[in-house]
Write a structure and sequence with these properties.
single chain, about 270 residues, alpha/beta, Glycerol-3-phosphate (1)-acyltransferase, eight-stranded mixed β-sheet, 8 strands, globular, transferase
Length: about 270
């Protein structure tokens, strides 16, 4: 089935105060869960037999499973509804998954539905008490902005890993259009077998860069994730040097997301 939907299963939204409590419980659960993974789960997993690749694959599966359970908790507690389209096309070897970044939980939802994915994450999260355990055990890549990071990310794709990246580098400012940095496209033309855009929309907007977690909307927010058509990076590299190819790919991706997000906004209205 091409679409999995949990939208509209509840006849009406939970009361505001309950959703505020459920949102607080969700963030608390996420923080405590991250610490438990770091101090208890991953040390135990490291005792199991297997080489470095096996341990990394095992850790990523655990992270994906826990993120999925977290999303389901937010759904069942009345915080959100969600809809994912085409998710079965994510997780292929050498695939770069490029997504816009409207909310705090974008990466959580994406990783929840990809069992074995690498991800470029913000440098600050490497020292976050809740996130550093899962990030390091899963072998995620720090977004330091250096050439070493670009080489590491391209190398992961060349090895056949799936790589998730947010070209904006941070959450979209409400009321502004996404601005893609060229780093993601530079990685893609150097190592990706295919590039797959994923358009994320959140309605009403919440958990944005400008809003604290407790500034919840008047009703459940709906999280929609749509997997777009694959892009072959070779169409940009065949007749142009890498710097020009990355610029053209970045422009192509930006136009794609602008068009799709405008369509989503018209549909929401």
């Amino acid at each position: 089935m091409d679409m999995v939907s949990q939208h509209g299963l509840s006849p009406r939204s939970a009361p505001y105060l309950w959703r505020l409590f459920a949102t607080a419980a969700s963030f608390s659960l996420f923080g405590i869960g991250g610490v438990l993974l770091r101090v208890l789960v991953f040390p135990l997993l490291s005792l199991l037999p297997g080489d470095a690749l096996t341990r990394r694959t095992r850790a990523r599966a655990v992270v994906s499973w826990t993120f999925y359970k977290f999303v389901r908790f937010m759904y069942h507690s009345g915080v959100l509804t969600y809809e994912v389209e085409g998710i079965e096309r994510l997780g292929r070897p050498g695939q770069m998954v490029i997504a816009n970044h409207p909310s705090l939980i974008d990466v959580v939802v994406l990783i929840a539905f990809i069992r074995d994915a690498n991800c470029v994450v913000k440098q600050s999260l490497w020292d976050n008490p809740s996130m550093r355990g899962p990030i390091r055990a899963a072998g995620f890549i720090s977004n330091s902005g250096s050439m070493d990071m670009l080489d590491e990310a391209a190398g992961a794709l060349q090895e056949g890993q799936t790589l998730v990246i947010f070209p904006e580098g941070t959450r979209t400012t409400p009321g502004h259009t996404p601005e893609f940095h060229r780093g993601a496209a530079a990685i893609a033309v150097r190592g990706a077998r295919l590039v797959t855009p994923v358009v994320i929309s959140v309605s009403p907007t919440t958990l944005t860069k400008a809003e604290p977690w407790y500034s919840i909307p008047s009703r459940r927010f709906h999280f929609r994730l749509r997997v777009g058509e694959d892009i072959d990076p070779q169409q940009f590299t065949a007749q142009a040097p890498l710097p020009i190819a990355s610029r053209k790919l970045n422009d192509h991706l930006h136009q794609h997301f602008m068009k799709e997000l405008a369509t989503d906004e018209r549909s929401a209205n």
